[in-house]
Amino acid sequence: MNPSAEIVELHEDVSSSEYYSRDMAPIPATGRRWGARDMAVLWISMSACIPTYMLASSLIDLGMNWWQAVLTIFLGNCIVLVPMVLNAHAGTRYGIPFPVYCRAAFGVRGANVPALMRALVACGWFGIQTWIGGMALFTLLAVWLPDWKAARPIVGLGITVPQAGCFLAFWLLNVAVVWRGIESIRLLLNIKAPLLIAFGLALLAWSYVRAGGFGPMLSQPSQFAAGQPKAGQFWSFFFPALTANVSFWATLSLNIPDFSRYAYSQRDQILGQTIGLPATMGLYSFIGVAVTSATVVIYGAPIWDPVQLLTKFENPVILVLAMLALGLATLATNIAANVVGPANDFAHLRPKAISFRVGGLITGVIGILIQPWRLLENAAVYIDKWLIGYSLLLGACGGVLIADYYLIRRCRLDLAGLYRREGPYWYVSGYNPLALIALAAGILPCLPGFAAAAGLLHVAAFWSRLYDYAWFVSFGMALTSYVLLTKTFGSIWGKAPGND
To answer: pTM for the complete prediction?
Structure first.
């Protein structure tokens, strides 16, 4: 089968539209360069990262044993793979980036709403990854500058001047790569994929030797087992943990068209993602939980942050090599996962005025302002407030998009109409009120639980339990609401959605 046969190309000149730019334009069949291998490498590269390690090890820190943590992560990634593949379809078929994909459901202007939600979450992740890379640099330099460790925190910020300096230095390195464009990102990913896997395996081998084998490493009991302090509470913790794992890649499950638009065919994007995502997350999460469990044996307490673990190494050569590998790997993951999407999202605000590069710079600035070190304060903040917190936004966005593309439009889009004012996706002054109502219907039920988790107010236990399922609740509510609203009121636009 000719892969280009399933690709819809733009045959109308819409370049004069204010909603068109070179960055937002569809990628033609002749411009596709990514096969199944490239899609798999993308996910191997992005999954083998320090936040994956930290996500897995944080579950150990909060009470799970090794197999409970690995199983929870693997299941969560199998679940999120479904919307990942579904949303990638539009990118591959029409060659469009995520913000343009949103125009069909939310309107040409309304697409900025989900795009900015996704962008702000990505800015948070950009800050987190940049902080991790900066702390790797700080740990490395502190070997020769031990006085740095004794520096006092800056009042109001909670970090020291040397930490802030290393953070900003790593930030500048990220911005420099973004300025060089998408091909430099692809090159970094191909270098990084084997590098961080080798780093993880080396750390696993070290912990195996120090802890005395897998027996002591993996024999740490679950706090949810009988006779332990949290006995009988496993399921009450499992579902929030599962939600956190789904929301870990809920970001990319939305803006995956930013990458799948470069794929040769649907087969390539589906096969590549299926091979690359769940298996790599399972492997790297096992490394994270095994090493964290080993730290209980070696040091008497779990160390869930690998940067902090590396400070225990006394050999400066090993420390230098480990930190350089960690820094390069973090840089590659950060650019691919947390810059490409928001750069396109910010560029979508004013396609003629904001380029991909400028969008990437905006991402970087917000990543500083968000103070990412506070999101990594401890495992509970990382999971309960950050991962589950933003999942209620992204779940609702995903519900509307999938309902519109599959259940309403049956995968049929007017490609030129996505760029036209007063076209089929103009709705009411460029906004689709039904999509915005459905989005709100998905978000609102989870807000009381989020407010309680953030310590803003006390709510009934029902709302906190609902918040534990935030991504699932918001996705289901938004999808159902959008279908019902569109079937009931869609004809008021003069042309019912789905008849493109």
So the answer is: 0.86
